[in-house]
Sequence to fold (193 residues):
Amino acid sequence: MHDYPPPGAFPVATVSDAMDRFGVADGIRPLWPGAVLSGPAFTVWTRPGDNKGLHTAFETIRRGEVLVVNGGGDVTRALIGELVVQKAKALEIGGIVLDGAARDVVELAGLGVPVFARAVTPAGPWKTGPYRINGPIAVGGVPVGPGDWVIGDDDGVAVVPAGEVDDVIAGTRRLLEGETERRAANQRLVPRG
Ligand SMILES: O=C([O-])CC(=O)C(=O)O
Ligand SMILES: [Mg+2]
Fold:
């Protein structure tokens, strides 16, 4: 498993800027304020509204890995809730990103596992499959493969292809230096007239 920067080390917005502003999962939001994640993807492609594949993923997912689920963008069934996220916490995974929905949001915030999803609904999931584990998927229109770097913060989620991580981190650092200079210049502004 790759070692990627710790959660919150880099703003997702700037990392995306370093990929020519690509790589952002459209419409995927944190389910509680302040949630940050960073780690290698463990991917699941599931039938919309069905979480059997997620339970299978929990049999092999490793500490620090981020469970990334292509649920087809379905918002009518929650793929996870408190009980699933309790498993995620016990296994110390890096977090969960769903192109789908979740429920039990008050309890999720209390558990402190970073969870990002397209929607919230009280409707529970089906549990029959089919699903695919650790193959190429898409989340919010962005390709994700096993081991790609997934990062999330209050702005949303971005995915960096595993082979581009070093270049993107170097580019992000350069952009952050430029932003520091622009911030200082902004603070020197004074009103005219
Ligand atoms: O019933 C489910 O599979 C989803 C859920 O609410 C939980 O994990 O707590
Ligand atoms: Mg529940």
The radius of gyration is 17 Å. The longest strand covers residues 37-46.
